[in-house]
Design brief:
The chain is mostly beta strands. The protein has one domain (8-204): Jelly Rolls (Sandwich), CATH 2.60.120. It contains 2 helices and 12 strands, in the order βββααβββββββββ. β9 and β10 form a beta hairpin.
C-alpha cells in the first residue's frame, strides 16, 4: 500500500517484485504489503503447533546516495503511514541510516549492524514458534494464550548477520511493550523511506539471495 504522503515511484516490475524510488526531501512514510505475510488464522504456532517463518528482501540501488534512507521490518495493522517501522506499537524494523534495530522505539533504537550501503541486498525475517513452557514471560505484559516465541533475523548479501529474541531482557525504564508482534495479530511487510532512496522489494523466494534452511 502506497501512503498519500509518499513522494516517488512504486511500480510492479515483475511478479513478487516492486521497484521504488522516493524523491529528495521526501517526508517519512511507510510502504506496507497489501496482504499479511503472517496470518493468525493460517499460520498461528499456538494453534497449529508448528513454526512459521516470514521473510523478504530489498535490493538497494548501486546509484543510491551514500546514506541509505530505508527501514525494513514488519507491522501489525493499523499502522500510521507517516512513521517508520519500529517506531510505533506493533512494529519492528532495522534502519539503514544507522543500522539500529527498533521495536516500538522512537528514541534512537539499539545497536545491531552497520549502516546499509548502496548496492547491497538486505533481508529481514521473523520465526514464530510454539512457546516453550519454560520460557520467561515478556516484561510488563500479561501472557495471553496466543503468545509464541519469536526470533528476528537480518541478512546481508544472502548471509545471516544477526538475530535477536523478541522477548529478550527489557529495560524497564525505556523499552515499551512488544504487543502486536507475538503471534496474535496478522503481520505485514513494511518498508519505510525518508528523503531520497531507490530500491527493489522482493517477496518471491526465487529472487532472494538468502536460501532458507
Amino acid at each position: 500500500m502506497r501512503p498519500s504522503q509518499y513522494v516517488g515511484k512504486v511500480q510492479k516490475s515483475r511478479p513478487g517484485t516492486w521497484t521504488c524510488a522516493s524523491k529528495r526531501k521526501s517526508p517519512d512514510s511507510c510502504l506496507v504489503s497489501t496482504v499479511p505475510l503472517y496470518s493468525v488464522l493460517a499460520h498461528s504456532p499456538a494453534s497449529l503447533r508448528r513454526s512459521k517463518t516470514i521473510y523478504f528482501e530489498i535490493a538497494i540501488s548501486p546509484n543510491n546516495r551514500s546514506e541509505v534512507s530505508v527501514a525494513l521490518g514488519f507491522v501489525a495493522q493499523p499502522f500510521p503511514p507517516f512513521r517508520l517501522p519500529g517506531w510505533e506499537r506493533g512494529s519492528l524494523g532495522v534502519h539503514g541510516d544507522d543500522g539500529n534495530k527498533y521495536i516500538n522505539d522512537c528514541w534512537g533504537g539499539k545497536d545491531f549492524t552497520d549502516p546499509f550501503k548502496p548496492g547491497e541486498t538486505i533481508g529481514i525475517g521473523m520465526v514464530l514458534k510454539p512457546k516453550k513452557s519454560s520460557a520467561p514471560p515478556a516484561y510488563g505484559e500479561p501472557q495471553p494464550s496466543e503468545v509464541v516465541d519469536v526470533e528476528i533475523f537480518l541478512t546481508r548479501e544472502g548471509e545471516k548477520v544477526g538475530m535477536w529474541d523478541l522477548h529478550e531482557e527489557a529495560d524497564a525504564d525505556q523499552d515499551r511493550p512488544v504487543t502486536g508482534l507475538e503471534g496474535g495479530h496478522d503481520l505485514f511487510a513494511a518498508v519505510g523511506t525518508f528523503d531520497e532512496a531507490a530500491f527493489e522489494v522482493r517477496f518471491d523466494s526465487k529472487d532472494w539471495l538468502y536460501v532458507p534452511s
